Amino acid sequence: MRVVFMSVESEVECLAFGYLGAYLKAAGHEVMLCRTNDDDTIVQLCENRPDVLCYSVTTGWHKYYRDMHYTLNTFFDRDTIGVFGGPHPTFFPEYVSSLHNGVIVRGEGYEVLVDIINSLEHDGVVDMAIPNVNNNPLRPLMDKSTLLPPDRNLMYTYPDNYNNPIKSIMASFGCVFSCPYCYNSNYRDLYKGYTQQLRPIETVANELDELRAYPLELVYFQDDIFPVFSSKWLSDFCQMYSTVRVPFHVQLRAEFITDEVISQLTKVGLHSVTFAVESGDEKFRADVLRRRQDNNIIQNAANILHKYRLRFRIENMLGAPGESLRQALTTVDLNAACQPTYGWASVFQPYPGTKLGNRAISDGLFDGNVDAISETFSSTYLLNTTNARAIINLQRLFSLAVRFRAIRWLLPLLINLPLTNLYTKFGLWFKRFCYKSKLYHVSRRTLCTT
């Protein structure tokens, strides 16, 4: 059968489509990728209708993809079924009732999608008894050591993805933490015994070898937390990666950034690091965000990264329920003390079902309307608080204030002015400047020579 993955334009390749496409191809199906703004390809789809349209949906994009599927079906000579997977259908199964000729996949979908397409091919309809479909019970999580490698040819359908010198890969799946603003604890409830799974080193090595067939200057490990906490895995990884000779980026927790870990990684090509602070107020960070890291741990992590002359980004979140404006400003101060290459901030999103999302609803700060949630973390602040405008303005000015001390001094005044649009333009300019010239710039002289 002919299966088309529909996606918005993005310079970052979609690993989910790569993995799903690999399983569909192995089952003998034809797969392709189409961007929703690719008019020429969409015209071809209308002339030669695919059998199935697939969407990977996060909360905020759920309305867009629902409407996109309906619109496409109005142009086809007959209805084409849509399969909607990803976080939003997983945690909001009622989403299926809003779809036109669609089904949802909850949880892990590698084998589920194959079963759906096979049933369509054999019977002309989806077998509604397939596990994970709509509200059916979930099958166990797959052993990630057996996972097929993602279909890179599918992921690099478009030239900007193919030519992007930054290529993504996973060394592990899942996260061991349960932050109250994240759905990870909900996912753990769905899959009893769920934990982070580390991929065997040889499978990571094989995938890195495949990447050499494409333009490549930086390997970006997309793991929620790169698994440095396993000393055996880390040692084996460093031994393997010493022969790769391509710089790489990882995402870590501050408490995992030690001199020993960073020293090992730097020797084999570590180029840059991302870690999250979320809030600069220790008590708020521990009591509300459930991140028990004191500021000394965070500052020490930054000092170690500076010691090894690594670029690094710090991630933060402003305006969570119960956070005062004073506490939000301490987040700027802590970031400024750490002197990251780029200090990044989002505004809190009250995802219903998460502990903090539910708190926002129970405190009367949010009406629970999931359709009001925007596509990105920074577009819209939904909490009904007296400091709402100041929080939005602080988010827009955050990166500039972390870098330039004069702006930090003026912040109490600036964030209360009705200049959000102007602040947005300055923030976007600074982000592009940092990303292009510093954080992700890769010189061939940075290649490991040991």
Give structural notes.
There is one protein chain. The chain is α/β, with parallel strands linked by helices. The protein has two domains: 2-123, Response regulator (Rossmann fold, 3-Layer(aba) Sandwich), CATH 3.40.50.2300; 165-446, tm_1862 like domain (pyruvate-formate lyase- activating enzyme, Alpha-Beta Horseshoe). Helix content is 42%, strand content 14%. The protein has helices at residues 15-26, 39-47, 62-75, 87-91, 110-123, 152-155, 159-163, 184-190, 201-211, 231-241, 259-267, 282-287, 295-307, 325-338, 355-362, 388-403, 405-414, 420-439; strands spanning 2-7, 30-35, 52-56, 81-85, 102-104, 166-169, 172-173, 197-198, 218-221, 248-252, 270-278, 311-318, 342-347. Strands 6-9-10-11-12-13 form a six-stranded parallel β-sheet. A five-stranded parallel β-sheet has the order 2-1-3-4-5, sandwiched between helices. Strand 9 (218-221), helix 10 (231-241) and strand 10 (248-252) form a beta-alpha-beta unit. The chain is globular.
> What coarse outline follows from CA principal-axis ratios?
globular
| Name given to the CATH homologous superfamily of the largest domain | tm_1862 like domain
CATH architecture of the largest domain: Alpha-Beta Horseshoe
CATH topology of the largest domain: pyruvate-formate lyase- activating enzyme
Q: Which radius of gyration do the C-alpha atoms yield?
A: 23 Å
How far the N terminus sits from the C terminus, by CA atoms, comes to 49 Å
Task: Tell me the β content.
Answer: 5-15%
Total strands: 13
Helix run count: 18
Kindly provide the name of the CATH class of the largest domain: Alpha Beta
Class inferred from helices and paired strands: alpha/beta
The biggest sheet amounts to:
6 strands, parallel
Query: Average pLDDT across residues?
Result: 92
**What is the helix fraction of residues, given as a range?**
40-55%
The main sheet orders its strands as: 6-9-10-11-12-13
